Amino acid sequence: MIIWRNFRTVAGAAIVVGMCLLLSACSESTPPPGEKPSDATGNQTQTLDSGREILEAVAAKYRKAASYMDRGVIRIHMEREEGPVDESIPFALMFQRPDKLRIEIDQVSAVLAGGKLHAALSGLPGQVVVRPTPAEVDLDSLGRSRILAQVLGEGFARRLVRLVLLLDDNAIQQLLEEAGEPELAEPGEIEGRTCHRVRIRQQDQVATLWIDRETLIVRRIELPAGELIEGAGGTVQSASRAAEFVGAELDAQVPAEVFQFEIPEGAEVVKFFQPPSPADLLGKPAPDFQFSDLEGNPVNRESLAGKVTVLDFWGLNCGPCRISLPALSNIRQQYADNAKVAFYAVNIDAPQTENAELTKLFGELDVDIPILRDRQQDAFAAFRIPGVPTLFVLDGKGTVQHYAIGANPGLAQELPKTIETLLAGENTFEAQKKEYQEQLRKMEEAVDKAEASSTESASEEPSVPEAQIAARSEPRSVRLKPLWTSTDVKEPGNLLAVPAADGQVKLVVVDGWKRIAELSLNGKLLALHEPNIESQELFNALRTGVDASGKRYYAAVALMSGQQRFHLFDQQFQLLLSFPDNALKNPHSGIADVQLADLAGDGNLRAYVGYWGEVGVHAVSLTGERVWANRNVPNVQKMTVTGPDAEGNRRLLCANVTGMLAVMNAQGESAPPLVLGDRRIGWITSADLEGDGRMAYCGLVAETLGKNEAAGLAIDGSNARITWTYQLPDGVSRQPVQPIVAGRLTKDGSGQWLLPGPDGSIHILSADGEMLDRFNYGSAIQGLTTVEIDGKPALLVATEKGVAAWAFE
Description:
Layout: E1 6-11, E2 14-19, H1 51-64, E3 67-80, E4 83-96, E5 100-105, E6 108-113, E7 116-121, E8 124-132, H2 139-144, H3 146-152, H4 161-167, H5 171-175, E9 183-190, E10 193-202, E11 205-212, E12 218-223, H6 226-231, E13 236-244, E14 249-250, E15 268-270, E16 290-293, E17 298-300, E18 308-314, H7 321-334, E19 341-347, H8 355-365, E20 371-373, H9 379-383, E21 390-394, E22 400-405, H10 411-423, H11 429-456, E23 480-486, E24 492-499, E25 505-511, E26 515-519, E27 525-529, E28 541-546, E29 552-557, E30 566-569, E31 575-579, E32 591-597, E33 606-611, E34 617-620, E35 626-630, E36 636-641, E37 652-656, E38 661-664, E39 670-674, E40 681-687, E41 696-704, E42 707-716, E43 719-727, E44 741-743, E45 752-756, E46 761-765, E47 771-776, E48 783-789, E49 792-799, E50 802-808
Parallel strand pairs: 8-15, 18-19, 19-20
Antiparallel strand pairs: 1-2, 3-4, 3-13, 3-14, 4-5, 5-6, 6-7, 7-8, 9-10, 10-11, 11-12, 12-13, 16-17, 16-20, 18-21, 21-22, 23-50, 24-25, 25-26, 26-27, 28-29, 29-30, 30-31, 32-33, 33-34, 34-35, 36-37, 37-38, 38-39, 40-41, 41-42, 42-43, 44-45, 45-46, 46-47, 48-49, 49-50
Helix pairs in contact: 1-4, 7-10
């Protein structure tokens, strides 16, 4: 359902506050009698006796209006443990039929007029986006604009109440989607004007529209605040938020200059907003900087003149820095006797951090590099650093010749080559700059392609492609021999094969969204568990992990369903906790995925929770304490874990609405996201297919609903690329089956990727994407895994008919 939701996202150094506040709504009160609204002359015209009648009258009036304008504010109040917090976010909307629109929200300003969109961010003052737009402003064209979605939030056009009322003939249907019947509360007053108060309920969330009784203009919307509470990471006891539409006026005389956009002098016209990047500095003089050594002596661009200088930016809590700093120290030793080469480790921690903390860490890591302090705390902005570690190489003239983000495994080979080239008087920046420009070109092509594609299909209503189950066929290169079929599991879903306490392997099956079945390897039902969770709660997938003591845990999560909590079980499937414990009273947008992992390599298993909406990713202990919360990743879709680095640390990879892979370490710190050219990854998983401790990665690329490609990913430090793709049958699976499963169908050698098609087909791919076999099972696949039975590989398939085991020969 639509109304508004506060949306914040980080774009490089710029924080964009989007104007998306989601109405989720209504109350338990008994509707009081309606009021009599007045027409334009002030005469009362009809009696409105219900919330629906009032909303219909409002929608009719907005739809007929020739123009609209307001300037308002979003007010947020939170009661935190450390005290109350209040925030105000200004906004404005001006509209004139048929083709003029201006939207302002905090740092964002966007104008549509004369067939063009102009958009600007105050956080990126040197950029103005200019894009063509249709001759008439409508919800479809607004919703297709990737630029407006980028700055105002995905799907924003269908969440701005005023735009829905002004532009949608079916506004009431949009406003009440998945909601109960609107109800009337007692009237209220805003600045001396009496207002109807219409409440709408969706599940346990409530929103209230304050509607001027005489003019039928929306003056205020009180919004659900559950997502604010959950996204704050457990520090907020209560919260409220409301949008105040100050000066809202229909059929207003909007000044013509409101729809004029002056491009600031010196600003660059771009096709999409480009967050500040170190690549912008390549071939240019380094920014003016004022660092100091540990004795307080200044180090700046002038003092380094004539030297090839390596500046490595790092922080105390940076895990990858503990890998890159020792490697850099070893390279420095090669140039210990060369006065024309200088190495510095520039610390970015707060000025109050003691020097002793820095030198202590360097002693532990056996690092011998002079430390500089950024006391003025301006290096991140000046050098456009997205995170640490980030390394820069300057030539003797102070020109930026090279940069590297993250811990680079090839540093020992690459950096000396760069230094030697610069010592010889040659430049090195051209190749890296060309590569960056090529990335921008591909991104521009992707934006053009996406908007062109959406324009072509604009007249089509989005629908879920129905997949037809294909007739059964046999594998091409192997033979399936039936072993057993279990019908004890009545509604089988996703499957896991896990070691049992006695050293044997058992099968764990999700049964009917509410139960967990355990099967032996001969198909016998060992146990059926019915967890003690709330009646409205469901799950369709299980995650499992083992802690340092060997104890196994299971996390039950409902993929693609918007459920409010996940549930943690011990190895006997006793419920340990449901997280977040208060989510049923303070609803959020839903949990998308959960992973059980030991990212820090210290034996402590944690649950990593990815949310839909703007709640982000949270780390949770196995006793239910929130360890950290990172809200920089909107609309998480699927997460996976990387293999361990040299120090035993792993990273969390998050596929999300941006199509990039967000990267986080064990402390919840974000590394630069992994960009895969013009492809958007919507699902990702990882597995050790070779058995050598190295992870292989497989994802799904889905540019259009129901058209999926599997894609192999090569991930090396801060770099990622797609190495192969495989086209899957069109359509969407009838049940939420895991779309990519790692398995082993051979006794020796590498494992395989198993992909259930929506048409009941099963696709078996090698680690490098080679299609090993493909066959139609003849039924919709509801779960898939592999296991050894009597020392031989077997394929396990769940359908509506039960769970079947097949020897793979």
